[in-house]
Write a structure and sequence with these properties.
The chain folds into three domains: 172 residues, 2-Layer Sandwich (Aldehyde Oxidoreductase, domain 4); 135 residues, Aldehyde oxidase/xanthine dehydrogenase, a/b hammerhead (Aldehyde Oxidoreductase, domain 3); 229 residues, Aldehyde Oxidoreductase, domain 4. It has 19 helices and 31 strands. The longest helix is centred in the last third of the chain and has 24 residues. The chain is flat, with a radius of gyration of 28 Å.
């Protein structure tokens, strides 16, 4: 018999949904487009002071002495703190040395310039692209061997060897890292730019010895994080300490763009020497890779377990990885950590193997789909992408691009991700006047999370989206997980669904007597409470809510990751593929994007409009990093040469080309529940674009970004990795 004690939390069938699955504009879109939305970098409490940081100008140094006396005497300065005093070692350019608060930003910056520091410069390494120069800074992880790669290479019909590289890039958040902090007695008011509203209070509390219960966190909007804005960071702690020294007045520290690019996180590099073997029909039989990377002093976080990426069932494998410790700012999670790097190394090698076989790479990818964990999904996606791109019509073999100077080419790559929902609690309240609130201690990074929450609540309660008051961005609300790993949509959807189902059941109990039926015979449809099978018996939503008298209904719902997959509201594991169409001017070396086709699944799609928006954004980021982005460090002087928006290049509007998105919405995918989509579409683009350029010009450009000088150098080499 069915369990009648547990509410039916299952998602409504696809064909019955009135709100979910339909495109809906962001509920905060007008606020953001009009400038009315306030970010915490806009916050200005009464009496606010301005903080500034003195940072280290060297890649590696020891503080010999520091003198803050002149800064302390400057009129307008309220506090000066030494972060790294005499004898302390600094491991990268931009490391925090001292902090200042003052009555204006100008005074704070002037005070920083008055602090005198004597440094002892120490040996450093800031580049990792040449592993032979890393010396004892290179830390091998140990070899992994599966099957018999030596014999497989010996028996192979075709082998290919190539070298590939993808550099360090930064998060480059539109809103830089920072916060405003103020004391009120032993309590802290905290306005951070964060991906972790519910958890960041505890983080800063541990650093300043204050209970998380005494820290109030608030954030209405935030301007991008991409994985870099989870902790309170040293600058947040310094803002709190400066505030305390300044009588509790609010202190604002948001990083300037140079410091942001130097120390606020980066995506690690990845370089590799790859050897790959196949049979004549394109079946991959062996893989060997020696990879290395850096994410700063701790080395690179790239896992050898990712190789060969997606095609993890290659039977014979030898994998080595080396982490290189450099004196540069530390890595942080960057939209699908390690996956864009892994797919670039893997899919570049497969494309080059295909060229050596004389085969269409689409056929090679399809031939080896059985080596993935989801062969049916990848096969269907590759075929759909090929249909949209007209691949079979437009693809050509390398070196067959026509006689003109401008060559056109196609390339493809694949990706995978998890994306199961995080832990989340939601409180849903139905008031006697019919108004509805849902409260979660979550955050909207610009992804449309507010809208997703409202749509789930509206679907459950039979109301329009405009009738739902979504309250997020405050740690006084029920706790919800940090927004990372594409876990937010699944987590908040599940907790909101449960909370609103529970609240609706209570409303049914109040309305049932008036309709002469029992609560289990009621449903909420089009702003009415209706008896199932008899639409003549109904109450308007407002009339049903008046049955509550002076009481309100408040019910909670929780997503528990340990039981979520069994419940079916949210699961993890997605596949995706992208195809790029580029034109390359062989006289100038310039690469032009024509089209980027993205085919991705994400389980049940709550809002196709914002889901597509996520993919558009990820594709744009991939185009940026494939063609322009690179943190450039100089080993001679130990400095980053481009920590600014003049020389740290990003794509402009005219650089993007056409982006075509296909959401892989099928009944089979829908049954898997909500799966996050923030990261998966940021994975395949780099490799697809690199492969398209190789197809266009007939030679591999081994390192990203695909700048004109690298393209021309590859053409001049007459072979490269082709």
């Amino acid at each position: 018999m069915p369990d009648t004690t547990t509410p039916n939390y299952h998602w409504p069938p696809m064909q019955d949904r009135r709100v979910m699955g339909k495109p809906h504009s962001r509920i905060d879109g007008i606020q953001k487009a009009s400038g009315a939305a306030k970010y915490n970098s806009d916050v200005k409490p009464a009496g606010m002071l301005f903080g500034a940081l003195l940072t280290c100008p060297h890649a590696h140094a020891r503080v010999k002495s520091i003198d803050t006396s002149a800064a302390e005497k400057l009129p307008g300065v309220t506090a000066v703190r030494v972060i790294m005093g005499a004898g302390k070692e600094l491991q990268w350019e931009g490391a925090e040395v001292a902090s200042v608060s003052a009555t204006s930003e100008e005074v704070a910056n002037d005070a920083v310039k008055l602090i005198r520091v004597e440094y002892e410069e120490l040996p450093f390494l800031v580049r990792e692209d040449d592993l032979s120069k890393a010396g004892n800074r290179a830390k091998p992880a140990g070899e992994q061997v599966t099957g018999d790669p030596d014999k497989a290479f010996q028996d192979a019909a075709v082998t290919h060897e190539g070298s590939y590289g993808i550099p360090v890039i930064t998060h480059c958040c539109l809103e830089p890292h920072g916060s405003v902090v103020a004391w009120s007695g032993d309590k802290l008011e905290y306005w951070p730019s964060t991906q972790n509203v519910s958890g960041i209070g505890g983080d800063i509390g541990r650093a300043i010895s204050v209970s998380a219960a005494n820290i109030h966190v608030h954030q209405d909007h935030m301007g991008g994080g991409f994985g870099s804005k989870f902790p309170s960071d040293l600058w947040g702690v310094e803002a709190a300490q400066l505030s305390k020294l300044s009588g509790g007045k609010p202190v604002k520290i948001f990083l300037d763009r140079e410091t942001e690019l130097l120390i606020a996180g980066n995506r690690p590099s990845a370089y590799g020497k790859i050897k790959i073997a196949a049979e004549k029909d394109g079946t991959i039989t062996a893989w060997e890779s020696q990879t290395w990377s850096t994410g700063g002093l701790a080395g690179g976080g790239l896992s050898a377990d990712l190789f060969p990426y997606v095609f993890r069932k290659v039977p014979n494998r030898r994998i080595n990885h080396t982490a290189v410790s450099t004196n540069t700012g530390s890595a942080r999670a960057w939209r699908a950590p390690n996956h864009p790097q892994a797919t670039f190394l893997t899919c570049s090698a497969i494309e080059d193997l295909s060229a050596k076989l004389g085969m269409d790479p689409l056929d090679v990818f399809l031939k080896n789909a059985n080596l993935t964990n989801r062969p049916e999904a990848y096969t269907a996606q590759l075929q759909k992408g090929a249909e949209i791109m007209a691949w079979k019509k437009n693809w050509h073999a390398r070196g067959d691009s026509g006689s003109g100077a401008v060559k056109r080419g196609l390339g493809l790559a694949v990706g995978t991700w998890g994306g199961a929902g995080h832990a989340s609690k939601c409180l849903a309240t139905i008031h006697p006047d019919g108004s509805v609130e849902v409260e979660l201690g979550s955050q909207d990074l610009g992804t449309g999370a507010r809208t997703v929450i409202a749509m789930v609540a509206a679907e459950t309660l039979g109301l329009p989206v405009s009738a739902i008051d979504v309250k997020i961005g405050d740690n006084s609300y029920p706790p919800s997980g940090a927004s990372g790993g594409s876990t937010t949509s699944g987590g908040v959807s599940a907790s909101t669904r449960k909370a609103t189902v529970n609240a609706l059941d209570k409303l049914f109990e109040a309305a049932a007597p008036s309709l002469g039926t029992t609560p289990d015979k009621l449903q909420a449809v089009d702003r009415r409470i209706v008896v199932k099978g008899d639409t003549s018996k109904s109450l308007t939503w407002e009339a049903a809510c008046r049955k509550l008298g002076t009481n309100k209904i408040s019910e909670t719902g929780e997503n528990n990751p340990r039981t979520a997959e069994r419940e079916g509201l949210t699961t993890g594991g997605v596949a995706g593929m992208q195809m790029a169409d580029v034109s390359v001017d062989t006289e100038t070396g310039l690469v032009k994007m024509n089209r980027l086709v993205a085919v991705h699944d994400c389980g049940l799609v709550v809002n196709p409009k914002t889901a597509e928006s996520q993919i558009f954004g990820a594709c744009i980021m991939s185009i940026c990093s494939a063609l322009f982005e690179e943190r450039i460090a100089d080993q001679q002087i130990g400095r980053v040469l481009n920590p600014d928006m003049e020389f740290y290049k990003l794509a402009g509007l005219m650089d993007i080309g056409e982006i075509i998105v296909h959401l892989d919405i099928t009944p089979e995918n829908d049954k898997r529940g909500v799966i996050g989509l923030g990261e998966p579409p940021a994975i395949p683009g780099n490799a697809a674009i690199g492969n398209a350029v190789a197809n266009a010009i007939g030679v591999r450009v081994p390192h990203l970004p695909l700048t004109a000088d690298r393209v021309l150098a590859a053409l001049a080499s007459k072979g490269g990795n082709a």
